[in-house]
Amino acid sequence: MIFEHFDGVDTSMDDIIVWGSSKEEHDERLKKVLDATRTANLKLNKGKCLVGVQELTFLGDILSSEGVKPDKSKVSAIENMPRPQCMKDIQRFIGMVNYQAKFIPNLSNILAPLRQLTEKNVEWTWNYEQETAWNEVKKLLIKEPVLKFYDPHKPIKISSDASQSGLGAVLLQKHDETWQPVAYASRSLTGAETRYAQIEKELLSITFACERFHQFVSGQAIMIETDHKPLLALFKKPLNDCPLRIQRMMIKLQRYTLQVTFTPGRWMFTADTLSRAVDEKYRHEEKSSEVIEAYVDMVIKAMPVSDSKTQLIRTETAKDEVMQMLKEVIVQGWPENKHNCNPQVSDYWNCRAELTVVDGIKYKGCKIVIPLSLRKQMLQKIHEGHLGIEKCKKRAREVMYWPKINQDVSNEVERCSVCLKYRPSNPSEPLSPHPVPERPYEKVGVDLFTCHGKDFLMVTDYFSAYPEVCALNTTNSETVIKCLKAVFSRYGVPNVVFSDNGPQFTSLHFKNFAKEWDFVHQTSSPNYPQSNGLVERSIQTIKHLMKKSKESGSDFYKSLLIYRSTPLEHGASPAQLLMGRRLRSNLPMKQTLLKSGMEDKVRKVKENINRKQKIYFD
């Protein structure tokens, strides 16, 4: 540290404080500090400097010649706490005060007028005695020995809570094995925030607390105390699997080092009381909630779903009684136990931490929750390409949700007359797999097949299983080579091309093609043609898609698109593995899922090129 051995100098993060008992001493110390910063090539912001002041706020405390006193912002949540209106308000307040009882002498006598109002058969009357006790206790809560001054060397804990109408938080530090308050905070919820799911309100209270206590907690490890257990699992989930509002709040919290712990609500007296008796004089700028809502709106509008589809889902959701019950429990909070849950929404219990409501539509993470009336229609869309059960399940789970969706998808596929007709009657034995390549298009398999009297060339990547289908006028070597050149020009030249021993692949033309394009040509054993099993399976799949498309009158190329964009057993689709991005299909999908990760960089380069071209042209 540059100023470690300087007298009358202290630092915290990027703040420096210099003090002296006289102007001469102060100025001498300040000169040493300025000389040291110049030597270390440090720059100070002149606009943020205060020189020669008698009083200033530092680390949340007011420092002056009279000593140290807490900043008003630390204690305004207690000072401006509204007067209790009923017995429950008094009980919560007394519970909070009792938590600090050992630091307040004669507390029992001071609280006596308030405690009288909690007794049975006592009429509620708020007189001079209660008002005096109320104000006296509040004064005791915001000064020593209850309220402690911030110590940068002691551990930090934030206790936060959310009620139906407000947020409350208290910053605590450990003194002699006891957590004592350093600062209080509370605010009421905005109109939009009151409609948040309970888990969103609880996370909002943590976000509010971290931002309000930023000067204390920035750059330090913080323990977060919450009485909402689902939050613990939420902090372990990938960001993209979280509901939209929660995504935005989690992004805001990423600058802090948080360890979230669960504490039963009956032990969180202070935060619970503050969330229900908020500081009405604290004017919360709604910028934070507006940013969250703007982010949610942006994501929703960016989803490749037409306005008519979105409106249809919203309308049918509003008509669905179960969806309305689900909305109520999402917003007001789930019960502690499943057996206390409404049976009609109990199917959603296991995913309750992921559910949210945005503009009348329910979401599980980023997946749309489909109401009952639209599920049949969605099942038809899912099976539009006539893929098998597992591929249809993976395709559905990627973008939408409802209880027992896997079972419904299985039933839909098993009932399909077209799929039943073309189901293989005697499946082949499993083939011996080739070694897995290290990258896409390192090795491809090629073969010819015939369907509906037409010849086709199949090219399948061994890494991604991405199929390329080329129609052939003839099956001679020249035509096959021409098609392969077109495929390689799109995806790159593979290291290895694997085929059977057909005349198209054993000809002199193909041998010269392999030499000219610099790839190794391998062929299957004449006695065991099944060794090209990946291509054989791809051909079987594509032929089934062609036959099913013709039978059902659907578009084969749409079925091919669906097949290429359907996740495989590892969770990624052939298109993702080959191209590094998802393909847009007929199912509603979040716009961010379609990005490859290079868009921002490419956009900046292209904008720079366009700017230069305009300068040269003008």
TrEMBL record:
<dbReference type="InterPro" id="IPR001584">
    <property type="entry name" value="Integrase_cat-core"/>
</dbReference>
<dbReference type="InterPro" id="IPR036397">
    <property type="entry name" value="RNaseH_sf"/>
</dbReference>
<dbReference type="InterPro" id="IPR043502">
    <property type="entry name" value="DNA/RNA_pol_sf"/>
</dbReference>
<dbReference type="InterPro" id="IPR012337">
    <property type="entry name" value="RNaseH-like_sf"/>
</dbReference>
<dbReference type="InterPro" id="IPR043128">
    <property type="entry name" value="Rev_trsase/Diguanyl_cyclase"/>
</dbReference>
<feature type="domain" description="Integrase catalytic">
    <location>
        <begin position="436"/>
        <end position="596"/>
    </location>
</feature>
<protein>
    <recommendedName>
        <fullName>Gypsy retrotransposon integrase-like protein 1</fullName>
    </recommendedName>
</protein>
<dbReference type="GO" id="GO:0015074">
    <property type="term" value="P:DNA integration"/>
</dbReference>
<dbReference type="Pfam" id="PF17919">
    <property type="entry name" value="RT_RNaseH_2"/>
</dbReference>
<dbReference type="InterPro" id="IPR041577">
    <property type="entry name" value="RT_RNaseH_2"/>
</dbReference>
<dbReference type="InterPro" id="IPR041588">
    <property type="entry name" value="Integrase_H2C2"/>
</dbReference>
<dbReference type="GO" id="GO:0003676">
    <property type="term" value="F:nucleic acid binding"/>
</dbReference>
<dbReference type="Pfam" id="PF00665">
    <property type="entry name" value="rve"/>
</dbReference>
<dbReference type="InterPro" id="IPR050951">
    <property type="entry name" value="Retrovirus_Pol_polyprotein"/>
</dbReference>
<dbReference type="Pfam" id="PF17921">
    <property type="entry name" value="Integrase_H2C2"/>
</dbReference>
